[in-house]
Amino acid sequence: MSRGKIAVSAALLLALAACGYGQRQAAGRQDELPPAASASFLPDGETIEVVVSDTVPLDAAELIEPDGTPLPAARIERQAIGAEAPGLRPQIGVVASGGPVSGVDAGVGISLPIFGSGRRHPAPIASRAQFQVPDMERYRATWGLWEIRLRIGKALQGARYLTLPAPAPPTP
Fold first, then answer.
1. Is the separation of the CB atoms in 133 and 142 below 8 Å?
2. Cα 93 to Cα 114: distance, rounded to the nearest angstrom
3. pLDDT digits (tens, 9 = 90+) for 9-39
4. How buried is 147 (Cβ within 10 angstroms: 0-12 exposed, 13-18 middle, 19+ buried)?
5. In sequence order, which residues have a C-beta less than 8 Å from that of residue 62 and are 6 or more positions away?
6. Are residues 168 and 140 in the same domain?
7. 47 and 80 assigned to the same domain
8. Which distant-in-sequence residues (6+ apart) come within 8 Å of 47 by Cβ?
């Protein structure tokens, strides 16, 4: 088999592999990685702060008491922490080289982003929610039974839900 046929065969195989990868990606959500989230007490010792980093903002947060009573976050702040990143794009190039002695050689190059696509990747968003603990004595006695429930994104638009354990209380 000539070098030209081998190059064409390899290019076709890479193109097919790229098409299959794109179909697998389209079947799932674009932001498959789980959000990064943490909860801790602020220096005042009575306020819990939850920080979530994801491409979708935090929409709702609740501190759940041991009896199941939800306490909504006192406030939620959102801030973009980066710029939207462009995706990789396919490229085609044509090359001609040679001279009077060697003749002219022509070539076509194709670059296919196998592990990326032309879609843009949204900027990460840092969301912060704060809860004022209503009774710190009761919290200290039962903090292992408390939890934090988060809704990332709007409920009617495919929101994701995350539950975190409540943080250990600060030492008095």
1. no
2. 17
3. 444 444 444 444 443 333 334 445 678 899 9
4. middle
5. 70, 71, 72, 73, 148, 149
6. yes
7. yes
8. 41, 130, 131, 132, 133
User: Does residue 47 sit in helix, strand or coil?
Assistant: strand
Residue 104 phi, psi (nearest 5): -110, 130
Say yes or no: 24 and 36 in one domain: no
CA separation for the pair 128, 75 (Å, rounded): 8
Residues 76 and 11 in one domain: no
**Neighbouring-strand partners of residue 93:** 109
38 φ, ψ to 5°?
Answer: -150, 155
pTM higher than the cut 0.90: no
Q: Which residue has the tokens 């934090």?
A: 148
